[in-house]
Amino acid sequence: MHACPNDCILYRKEYEDSTNCPTCDISRWKEGKNSILKEGVPAKVVWYFPPIPRFKRMFQSHETAKSLTWHAARKSIDGQMSHPADFPSWKLLDDKWPEFGNEPRNLRLALSFDGFNPHSSLSSRYSCWPVILVTYNLPPWLCMKRKFMMLTLLISGPKQPGNDIDVCLEPLIDDLKSLWVLIRGVYDAHNGEYFTLRAALMWTINDFPAYGNLSGCVVKGYKACPICGDDTPSHRLKNGHKICYIGHRKWLPINHPYRRQRAAFNGKPEYGIPPEPLTGEEVLHMVENGDRVCWKKKSIFFDLEYWKSLPVRHALDVMHIEKNICDSIIGTLLEIPGKNKDGIAARLDLLNMGVKTDLQPQYGERRTRLPPGPWNLSRAEKREVCNSLFFLWYEGP
Length: 397
Description:
The protein is α+β, with helices and mostly antiparallel strands and 397 residues long. The protein has helices at 52-59, 62-67, 70-73, 88-96, 98-101, 165-181, 208-215, 280-288, 318-333, 344-352, 379-395, and strands spanning 29-31, 37-42, 46-48, 107-113, 129-135, 149-155, 183-188, 193-197, 199-206, 234-236, 243-245, 314-316, 362-363, 368-369. A six-stranded mixed beta sheet has the order 3-6-5-4-9-12. The longest helix is centred in the middle third of the chain and has 17 residues, at 165-181. This is Transposase.
């Protein structure tokens, strides 16, 4: 599908025969040398791969059709969250829409969205954005296999769509609406019968910036916490030139000793209580009534009938939470060049905040010395940490 270079519209439906964008008036066609338009050559393309025909083909395989009802036939239910079928979102769909939950062949989906550089060159600024659907009806050893990860959209570059991703998602949302109503005449090869297929999108999985693009939540600046909102405890570092968020202790139990420790944190005790996350109905009410201090737009996912009722609508992927934070902690403990977060700027910021003033830099004639902090390890301790990490990597999980 042809798209506006500024991501204003897709040239479909009422705009199918248009040659200029009705919003920004930019031509649909690519501009060549001497500003000559190459008529017939689109300036930007969005590739859409409809998921409904592929869902039908999944049920035409006897083995795959049987696996798609694994969640209803499994016997090992031990009270642990080992599959999305154990999650509240899954059970909510069953309870609120029993006609949907009573058919185990109805599909539960997740959507993932991120950018990558197709040219394998770190110096290139070209960014291509795929949108992938995952089917959770399958057992855990199959649902994340490449065979069942369904590419539905491929948004060409060179620029990322950003907050205008909703325009590119329009055809997928239309198909998800159809899947929620019903798709007739789907053949189940395992049971040898035709049935009516329905599907629901349970949540999206992204990194934090992509989460902001899809949900419409502000993820930068002083109000970047999607849970705290207007009450986000933020502080701009004068030397580090970044914004830090220092109110994390309020999520600890009310009698936790860390709440009373002053010197180890920001010099103040913590008596606050954690805020309650906003429900989908509350978010929808805020964005529709113009209360957009912490929201940039109304997400296109609210066009789905069930979206506002889901307790979890967006999830953050594991890599950016666990791996990157672990890299920063290990880089600081082992003082790895380029990975160490403890430097002169960090010590000066601690001094400006009145925290750990005994660790301020000591300026000499030839170089600046940083007094060792409680997180600094000796050479023997660093060797022990490296040996432990090597052992974990060698043995595997």
